[in-house]
């Protein structure tokens, strides 16, 4: 594949690295997109050159992606995102478990599930059961004190809204958080799991249809169908193995600071920059 744009971005993009990548991809010009984000035009993306670019960028701690010229966020009709560790910087269930003195135990199960090593629905029920008896005020404390958006998240969502792109949040976490994030960022849709509360205490169970890997993909499919948006105009972003079915339903997918199993199957991977990196990939 020739005449593509090679997008290079990172915390610090050194001039020697840019020049080397320009040579590897036999590009034409080097253009600045934003601070620490550059476009190498007329790049060649055959397998050997792609592998060489990937190897150089891994050594230099740079993110990269070959993109068709003119590709822009406005080309998409739907942006679907995971929440925990993608849109926000924490895993909510791990932080809730911290108030029960069981964060290490629960976080270990979360990490294993995100790597695809254990069955996700089983892992969710196991982790939720560890929260039984915890005062429900822990949820408010996690939201107020610990939930933070990842760098570039608000900018990405605002840009999508400005371009008329519908936004969908699909999370294996809990509606307590997704509903608030939806309202705060003015997202169009949000789906997650209902964490049961009884007598002001967490019951250690969830209710309603489970938003697992299949549930995420099903919500994306349904919304896209209702809006008449073809797969090619769907952009999906996630980080864990339970995001893979959702990402497979999108024409373009981005693995954000993701597990290796996710990066291996995504269209693009962002390991070093924030979510503004998606905008740099789609800067036209």
Tell me about this structure:
This protein is an alpha/beta fold and 284 residues long. The chain has 2 domains: 1-69, ACT domain (Alpha-Beta Plaits), CATH 3.30.70.260; 72-90 and 149-284, Rossmann fold, CATH 3.40.50. The chain has 12 helices and 11 strands. It has helices at residues 15-24, 47-60, 92-98, 103-114, 120-129, 137-145, 153-162, 175-185, 213-227, 244-248, 260-263, 276-281, and strands at 4-9, 30-34, 37-43, 63-67, 78-81, 166-174, 189-198, 201-207, 234-238, 252-256, 268-270. It has a 7-stranded mixed beta sheet, sandwiched between helices. The longest helix is centred in the C-terminal third of the chain and has 15 residues, at 213-227. The chain is elongated. The two termini are 18 Å apart. The model has no long low-confidence stretch (mean pLDDT 96).
Would you summarize the structure shown here?
By secondary structure, the chain is an alpha/beta fold. Helix content is 40%, strand content 23%. The protein has two domains: 1-69, ACT domain (Alpha-Beta Plaits); 72-90 and 149-284, HAD superfamily/HAD-like (Rossmann fold, 3-Layer(aba) Sandwich), CATH 3.40.50.1000.
